[in-house]
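Notebook, student rotation project (T.W.).
Task set for the rotation: take a protein with a known small-molecule partner, predict the structure of the complex, and write up what can be learned from the model alone. Partner molecule chosen: fe (ii) ion. Sequence and SMILES entered below by T.W., checked by me.
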Amino acid sequence: MSQTSNLLHNEPLRKLVSEMQTLPSLPSVYRELMQILRTDDASVDQAARIISKDVGMVTKILQVVNSPLYGLRGKVSNPSHAVVLLGLSTIRALVLSRNVFAQFDQSKLPFFSLEVLWQHGMAAGVHARAIVKEEAAEQTLTEDTFTAGLLHDVGTLVLATNLPDQYTEMLALMQERDISEWDAERTIFGATHAEVGGYLLGQWRLNQTIVNAVAYHHEPSYAPAPVSLALATLHVANAVEEETQAAALGTTFAPMDLDYLGACGLIDRLPLWQAICRDEAMSRAGC
Ligand SMILES: [Fe+2]
Ligand SMILES: [Fe+2]
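Predicted structure of the complex:
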């Protein structure tokens, strides 16, 4: 059994994810990309900037560039680099192909915001990247960590858009019992959004650093050895983001997995990492 197969034990969900060809994209981003691609002077940079505003598009572009067809064997994790490698004519072909970039239908999921999911992923990605840079990580790990942050809740998109009734039930259970999202997901779906997301990214051939960081971002102590700086930083960046959101909404949040940070020998770094996340958040807010 491959490492990716081990991430998701629920058979119906494995089947659902294995058969998925696409993820829904924000209609506004889709329209913006179509508009640019219709012009004669469209540039790869413009296309990359637009694509990197959408979780579904970024995931799909990384799947295509890492497919066996391109012979790169899961080496590309930077969305802009993926767009450059594919080139505008391939991007045009993908956008024009039916079912490659499906548009998100908000009317079917009034309780779910793709915009919020993207903003949260971007914040976690930016924060995690700032932390690994502080830890003097090499460029590849820095890029992997950013992409893992950007895509870490992609499993939520899979569950909410494919199983909306159960997703609504899960949100109600979470509130009713005041339990974590992943505990409620295990009760309703038999798996968590983290496991579903990790499994999807593994199936779509993203590299194992990203797959593991996504799959274990809420419960890093369950991750297989060896310890991972990408996972540790994503766990902290996501937890700080969720703590900030909870403070704004007056809700509760799950504590960090300090045992994992201890196992990584990184527990002493936590105050600095939290300060980095707060500084990043302030600069993003323009303070
Ligand atoms: Fe999550
Ligand atoms: Fe998250």
